[in-house]
Task: inverse folding
């Protein structure tokens, strides 16, 4: 089973813990030996999902939206990012250099194309900018990839 992740970053601590619980439950519902998690490993749900996949005995594949992607993430996330990259069984690249909205969406499109199911940590609202979670969900739906939305009831971002 190949499962991908998309989701909102910058969640508050209360919402973060609830999302972590939802992600852990979603990952543990699969047989770890047959699970391949696909993630861009950004800070937040992307990285939490990747950590749960590895802890559950699954394999991690990383989609790198741009060669400068890491530098566009918060510096405090770099150690986690580097650790997850070192554990990736495969890295898929867009071939783009600049880490911008177009690269992020291109990476998400590659990710969606690689998976049997997309987990979406999504509040159901429109994207704040091109390539946001809502855009990725819409792309998955257009291409026939099942989406499982994970969002704590009553939570906001």
Result:
């Amino acid at each position: 089973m190949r499962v991908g992740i998309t989701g909102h970053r910058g969640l508050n601590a209360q919402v973060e813990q609830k999302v972590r619980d939802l992600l852990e439950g979603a990952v543990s519902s699969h047989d770890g030996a047959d699970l391949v998690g696909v993630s861009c490993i950004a800070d937040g749900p992307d990285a939490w999902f990747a950590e749960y996949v590895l802890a559950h005995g699954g394999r991690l594949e990383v989609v790198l939206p741009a060669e400068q992607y890491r530098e566009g993430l918060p510096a405090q996330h770099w150690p986690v990012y580097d650790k997850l990259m070192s554990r990736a069984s495969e890295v898929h690249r867009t071939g783009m250099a600049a880490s911008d909205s177009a690269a992020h969406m291109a990476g998400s499109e590659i990710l969606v194309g690689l998976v049997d199911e997309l987990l979406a940590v999504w509040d159901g609202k429109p994207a704040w900018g091109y390539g946001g979670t809502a855009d990725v969900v819409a792309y998955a739906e257009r291409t026939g990839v099942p989406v499982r939305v994970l969002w704590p009831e009553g939570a906001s971002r």
Remarks:
- The helical segments are 13-28, 45-55, 69-72, 78-87, 101-114, 133-142.
